[in-house]
Amino acid sequence: MGATGFCYNRGTIMYGDSSATFGAVLRRYRQAARLSQDDLALKTGLSTRAISNLERGVNRNPRTATLTLLAEGLGLSAEERHRLETAAQPAPLARSHNLPAPLTSFIGREAEVAAVAATLRRADRRLVTLTGPGGAGKTRLALEVAAVVRADFPDGVWLVDLSPLTDALLVLATIARVLGGARRRTRAASRAAERLPAGQGPPVGAGQL
Around 155, how many Cα atoms within 13 Å sit in the side-chain half-sphere? Predict the structure, then answer.
């Protein structure tokens, strides 16, 4: 059996930093205005779920009309509005991921994507495992989540295809090869090894994030 792994390097998002995600900026402005998501929904005509999806990164590229509604509902200054619009632009992700382009649309699993993404963003979660029978869509879900959260990890989100492996002892070396660089290989292998109970090899057969 094979598996697919994702390696994330966590970074701190600073609101004054141009790398802050759109969701983080929107949440900051909403909280500064002392508005709940329900309040902002009423002021903009958007749904509460739409506001939540924007803040959680489920919807990463809002339309211009949506940005206008948000800016007006929040009462943003010209500078703040520019900041919000800038954060909504796709961030340059060159060399920050190796995710394949999706071949199909991903509809109907928004709740699962949001739940896994939220878990990954928690500081106390170093490893997330998706389990299920073959063909359940674990890898497709993992890829979608990786695309959603990649802006939250400035050092990159990397796909490690473990499906060709038949020996669990090759897992760490495969991860190291994808990450590249002698120092990074050593660091990645050490960190991965620290996650495993003593005497236990890495699991094969489930999507790892």
Answer: 9
